[in-house]
Amino acid sequence: MPGQNSSTLGAIQITLVRDLNVGPAPRDYRRESDLPLSSTKFMQFSLGATIALVFIASASSASEIEIDATQRFFSASIPEALQLSAVRSAVSAEVAGASVPSISYQLSLQLAILGRPIDVLGLRLGLDTGLLDVSKDGLRIDFREGTKAWGETGALGETWAELQLGAQGTVLLRAGKLRPRLGGGAVFDAYAFGVYADVDLRLAPAGPPWFFRAHAVLPDGTFTARAKTSPLFSVQVGYEPRRGLELRLLGMLFVDQADLTAPIFADAYSRGVLEAARTFLAERPRLDVQVQRCGPAGGLPLSDCLTSLYNLGLLGFELESRGLLGWSGLEVEWNVGTRARFRGLGLMGLGHIVVQTAPDGGFAALLRDAGANVLPEGGTLAQQLSPDGALSVLAGFGLIEAEVWPLEELAIEAFVLAETGDSGLQGASDTYNGFLSLAPLLPYTSLFFGGAVLTNLATPVVVSASPDGAGLFGAGLGLAWWPADRLRLAGTAAVLNALSRSELSPNRYMGLELDARVSLWLLDALLSVEADAAIFLPGPFFGPETPTAYQAILSTSLRFP
């Protein structure tokens, strides 16, 4: 069926952690120019870091060696419309539709070596092969052809050097390839190169209940020019007024100097142009002529043709963007003993972006074919619908989640989430109201919030939730029950709704997702067996013929020792 892909996948994940602890315990919007520029130097750096840490390993006694091996069989049928609308949409777009093989074997290898040659210095080397996929199409890594992904990442995982200063490690400084989680995962949760600082005054004897955290990173985990001129800064000020209650004031700033916001605004301008074109042509019916290249039965009026081609992804705007995106807000986390946990997060998205737009080739050709390009009053329709200038961003994000244990063996989980959306941009000084993220990860359900398929965490780009930046309201309720010490049964139901209408349908109801999981631990918890199932019943937001999506996973994991 068009727009749908089916896959049966198997995966093995092996994680090796070697902890050498001598002192105290440590606390796509891509262009051809984004291809690797100096991967050889970075591979040399990775090799040098490996040799250095192996030397540390040979000079110290290993305190712990862990191996995790996971065998996973994965079967799914996911409509492309849903796959592209997942919260990490712009990341998963590269592996959408036909790029996902129908049958494949997958392997992921991760290795981490931790060393502490002296009390204040910690080192970590991480290797991450990404997702190796073997199918009739050959070997692909992170759903990309051949070893291109390795050429960009050097197979380097989380790798850093850190200093812990103060009697209790009150000050922590870390630099390298990090895995920041910013804005509670609503803004960024992926690989990045940069530095991290943590000052926790609560660790000092009789210290005040304040803590401070800061990141300065390049939000990309590849050894390419991509995003290397567009830094991301984050500051967090925390206060603990009482035990179990934390208040965190958040501030983040992203400096876009490489068109990283362009895909979002190009799409938004295209939607705004559709509305402007409808109004323009309604006032000039002589221009709304039949276009023979549109429609299976001899053509459509130009106004309908614009909408049809846009919905098919064949019509849009080219756009360049430069400017600032910022997020600020408050996060509250409250642990009520061992029986309940509550978290609330509110973020305001702000921005000032300078854009330059132009209709793409398909748009301009369509206007010429329709004879509507030259206007009686002078100029062209393309020029009339292509504003240039400053663009403001004003958006909001809110989240409440709770976990309550009414019985020792029963947990109730719930979440409510809302992100503002935008129906399109029409003017040079318009305000975009969709909430933007760089690489969000909000794992509340397997399909919609899980990204539908495994995506590469090394190449994040700016995204907005749901198709067309339409915003999102979601609510879910889950239960987890331990009928026996080594057996866990869990289920989640989530309802999703857009806040702005889609070009496919005026109805904003996105659908219902139902997830279920059975987990069993054997051999003193060394071996675990899990079965996961998820089904998504799409609503009219995705169009009248979008099929049901499902996902089923059977996995076994062995942890040694």
Give the fraction of residues assigned to helices. Answer: 10-25%
- Alpha plus pi helix count: 8
Average of pLDDT: 75
Globally, the shape reads globular
Category from helices, strands and their pairing: mainly beta
Please outline the major beta sheet: 19 strands, mixed, barrel
Radius of gyration: 25 Å
Low-confidence stretches: 1-44, 57-64, 89-101, 374-378
Number of strands: 28
The amount of beta strand, in percent, is over 45%
Query: What is the terminal-to-terminal distance?
Result: 47 Å
Structure description:
- By secondary structure, the protein is mainly beta.
- Helices cover 15% and strands 48% of the residues.
- The protein has helices at 39-59, 80-85, 89-92, 148-153, 262-283, 302-311, 361-370, 381-384; strands at 4-21, 64-79, 103-118, 121-135, 138-141, 144-145, 159-165, 171-178, 181-182, 188-189, 192-200, 210-218, 232-242, 245-256, 290-291, 300-301, 317-336, 340-359, 389-407, 410-419, 431-432, 436-437, 463-464, 472-484, 487-497, 509-522, 527-538, 549-560.
- The protein has a 19-stranded mixed beta barrel. The chain has a two-stranded antiparallel sheet with strand order 9-10. Strands 15-16 form a two-stranded antiparallel sheet.
- Strand 4 and strand 5 form a beta hairpin.
- Helix 5 runs antiparallel to helix 6.
- It is globular and about 80 Å long.
